[in-house]
Amino acid sequence: MNGTVLDNLETLRSQKAKLQHAVERLIDSFAEGLIEKDQFASRMARTKSRIADLDSRSKSCAGDVDQREQLRLATKRLRELATVGPELGSADWQRKREIIRTVAH
Predict the structure, then answer these.
(1) What does each C-alpha distance from 53 to 11, 46, 58, 59 come to in angstroms?
(2) Which of 52, 27, 59, 24 has its CA nearest to residue 40?
(3) Contact criterion met (CB below 8 Å) for 65 and 9
(4) CB-based burial, 25-40: b 16+ in 10 Å, e otherwise
């Protein structure tokens, strides 16, 4: 599997965790009276927007990871089936049945 895609996904998750921590700090700052309501609201809106963007990008990246894994499994399966072809013609009924079951799953 492509390490870059997994690295990107991990980076996005890390960035989201930092932003979620920032939300907690904003709430604490507002509760302690360190920032005004308008500052709190605008910063919170920006931070939540960035979190939503990261969620969207993470979902897309995770989909890429899933697709790559499915492709890897399909390729592996095709390689396995390629070795069965020559064997199939001379196989007895029981072996053919096992092969069909394997292919069907």
Answers:
(1) 13, 11, 9, 10
(2) 27
(3) yes
(4) ebeeebeeeebeeeeb
CA distances from 8 to 3, 26, 67 (A): 9, 27, 15
pLDDT at 1: 47
pLDDT at position 46, please?
Answer: 96
pLDDT at 66: 80
SS3 content of the chain, % helix, strand, coil (to 5): 90, 0, 10
At residue 2 the predicted structure's pLDDT band, cuts being 50, 70 and 90, is low
Q: Judge: domain 3-104, CATH 3.30.300.
A: no
For 89-104, the DSSP string reads TT--HHHHHHHHHHHH
Domain boundaries, the chain: 3-104
